[in-house]
Design brief:
The complex is a heterodimer of chains A (276) and B (343).
Chain A: H1 2-24, H2 28-32, H3 46-52, H4 55-86, H5 94-106, H6 111-120, H7 128-131, H8 138-149, H9 153-161, H10 166-177, H11 179-195, H12 198-203, H13 212-228, H14 233-273
Helix pairs in contact in A: 1-14, 3-14, 4-8, 4-11, 4-13, 8-11, 8-14, 11-14, 13-14
Chain B: H1 2-11, H2 17-28, H3 41-60, H4 62-78, E1 84-85, E2 96-97, H5 101-107, H6 110-130, H7 132-143, H8 147-158, H9 165-176, H10 181-188, H11 200-228, H12 232-240, H13 245-256, H14 258-270, H15 277-283, H16 289-292, H17 295-305, H18 309-337
Antiparallel strand pairs in B: 1-2
Classes of the chains: A mainly alpha (276), B mainly alpha (343).
């Protein structure tokens, strides 16, 4: 009974994935007739060729890669610096520093002031509009902080006696010991930036700057407008084929990495929940 | 006393006795390096020492603090445009005071109350399903004997958590289209195909069930961890006392994971009003506005599509304050009643 329910859960979870993969390889007419569920019908790869020959798709895909790499790198530097300092229990003003970060988890400026700020800083249509406003995730910060706190204090003392500076301790002692948590944090940030779309949607109006998520969003929005205005079913159906391909290509990196890194995500969450 | 304190904090001259000096010391600790001259005597000395010893640590937080100041706290101050006339391209803090005009405007705006109601409805439904279901799934997983099967189910059920909301919206549109899988089932049982995403009466169901699909598996992680910490001796004791399977689950298991449940409940309540803005934005359309439009999407349209920045900021601030109030009161209530709190 128990097993059956759980198998049901697995089935329901996987079904949408299987469905878009099947559609991505299917002929349009079969999807339109509602015959494509678990297995492709009218198997072909022309839709893939079609999407992959679209230069805008490639530009946007490359943008996603660039944004993700740059944003993750910057986020890691800032988060590591702050988390390391927060992990120093004896530091004066530590609680204030923690408070400054944690308060932003529960209260934020909101959409409009943020929009006004980013525009007046002149960040629209630039990579920085995506990177800077999300450079520190407080959740990740707390995860990293609790990891650093668990490193033995004697290490620090020994290093100080050996004449290492704070930076020396951070780079030569702490970071080499923190490879696991660093990997987890990189994954957390990278997945979040890879998946993000709204920031780009809001602050960019040049199609050649979009990440692939916005490319996909525009496909979907186009299709749904066509469907709701009625009569445009042809357009919607052609798009549904292409939509599936784009979705598959967008999640592909995550799906490929997922089995190997899933463990890290879970350990990261656990670390985050074990807080002070 | 209060007068003296306010003078000392504004002028920074510590002339008002020991209590005021402490107050200044506290204020000084808000921004470690720069304000040290504000404190007198003992504070000053130890700050100097602290700085000498730890300046490298303080240097490390400079950039992150700059980030928080510009991208978190400045927008909070920017909410002031809710009370000021705002000219796009002008100062981010607006041009002139207009008092509570924009607050009155949304309080008398029927659309605002409609979207407020929608937000409450979607928020409550989400809480009703997305809070208990992970507990049930975790209990089911906890009963599984085979370690491999358990790992397998976990791995699969966490997967949706890592998908972009755009992908989720795309999947929903395919599954719910007139020829999609859901409508094939509807036809198979003899019904007529339903254009789910065009009908206001279906929006909440679609929203909540996709939310369940995406969050339930991932939501089990903390419960599973808590479950492994439940003392197995308690189960034996309960068995000896004649408790059956259900009673054991009720009295031992659920009691064991209660702190986790309360913590997650508080967090869920705090997020109550911030109904998945991005998901609604992707899924709704003018046809479904009557049930789908929520506070955040309304203020998005008012502010960024109709350029009513001040009005939208007033609504946004209202939403943020309610959110903060909700989480603070949930936290206070749980501290009093069950002794668990976030901080």
């Amino acid at each position: 009974m128990n097993t059956l329910i759980l198998l049901g859960v697995v089935g329901v979870t996987l079904y949408p994935f299987v469905n878009i993969i099947a559609q991505s390889f299917s002929g349009e007419s079969f999807i339109r007739a509602g015959e494509v569920n678990l297995w492709p019908k009218g198997f072909n790869t022309t839709t893939y060729q079609l999407v992959l020959s679209d230069s805008l798709f490639w530009t946007n895909y490359r943008n996603t890669v660039v944004y993700t790499v740059v944003a993750t790198a910057i986020a890691m530097v800032l988060t590591t610096c702050y988390a390391y300092v927060l992990s120093k229990r004896k530091l004066r003003g530590r609680n204030v520093l923690i408070g400054i970060a944690v308060f932003t988890m529960f209260f934020n400026g909101g959409l409009i002031p943020n929009y006004v700020l980013i525009s007046s800083l002149g960040l629209t249509n630039s990579l920085w509009a995506i990177v800077l406003p999300n450079a520190i995730s407080v959740f990740n910060l707390l995860v990293m902080k609790s990891f650093f706190e668990n490193l033995p204090e004697e290490l620090d003392e020994a290093a100080q006696i050996d004449g290492l500076s704070t930076f020396g301790i951070l780079f030569r002692i702490v970071l080499p010991l923190s490879k696991a948590v660093m990997a987890t944090m990189v994954l957390f940030y990278a997945v979040a930036f890879w998946n993000s779309w709204f920031q780009a949607f809001l602050y960019m109006d040049r199609a050649d700057l979009f990440p692939v998520t916005v490319y996909l969003r525009n496909l979907i929005a186009g299709a749904s407008t066509a469907a709701s205005s009625g009569g445009g079913t042809d357009l919607a159906q052609v798009a549904s084929n292409i939509q599936s391909v784009t979705m598959v290509l967008t999640v592909l990196p995550i799906l490929c990495l997922y089995p190997f890194v899933q463990r890290h995500f879970v350990s990261g969450i656990m670390l985050g929940s074990v807080k002070g | 006393m209060s007068l003296q304190q306010s003078t000392t904090t504004t002028t920074g001259a510590g002339v008002a006795g020991p209590e005021a000096a402490t107050a200044v010391g506290l204020a000084g600790s808000m921004e470690p390096p720069k304000r040290r001259r504000f404190g007198r005597q003992r504070e000053q000395l130890s700050w100097r020492k602290t700085l000498k010893r730890d300046w490298q640590l303080y240097a490390l937080v400079a950039l992150p603090l700059l980030f928080f100041a510009i991208f978190r706290y400045l927008p909070m101050l920017g909410n002031i445009i809710a009370f000021r006339r705002f000219r796009p391209g002008g100062s981010i803090f607006g041009e002139e005071w207009v008092g509570l005009r924009y607050v009155e405007m949304f309080l008398t705006d029927p659309t605002f109350w409609a979207v407020f109601g929608n937000t409450l409805a979607i928020g409550s439904l989400t809480l009703l399903f997305c809070f208990p279901l992970p507990i049930i799934l975790a209990l089911l997983l906890n009963e599984v004997r085979s370690r491999y099967f358990k790992k397998f189910v976990q791995t699969i059920s966490y997967l949706p958590h890592f998908l972009s909301i755009v992908i989720i919206a795309g999947m929903l549109m395919q599954l719910l289209s007139l020829e999609g899988t859901v409508n094939q089932i509807v036809r198979a049982v003899g019904g007529d195909a339903v254009p789910f995403l065009q009908l206001p009466e279906w929006f909440r169901t679609v929203y909540v069930s996709s939310e369940v699909w995406q969050t339930v598996g991932w939501g089990t992680i903390l419960y599973l961890a808590a479950l492994t910490n439940v003392d197995t001796a308690l189960y034996e004791a309960a068995r000896i006392d004649g408790a059956n399977r259900w009673q054991q689950t009720w009295h031992v298991t659920l009691t064991g994971i209660r702190p986790t449940m309360v913590t997650l409940l508080i967090l869920n309540i705090g997020a109550f009003l911030s109904v998945g803005f991005e998901k609604v934005l992707l899924l709704y359309n003018p046809l479904t506005y009557p049930t789908a439009d929520v506070i955040s999407t309304y203020l998005y349209r008012v502010g960024l599509e109709a350029n009513n920045f001040s009005y939208a900021a007033a609504i946004g601030m209202f939403e943020a304050i309610i959110g903060l109030t909700l989480i603070l009161s949930a936290n206070a209530i749980s501290r009093r009643t069950v002794g668990t709190s976030l901080w």
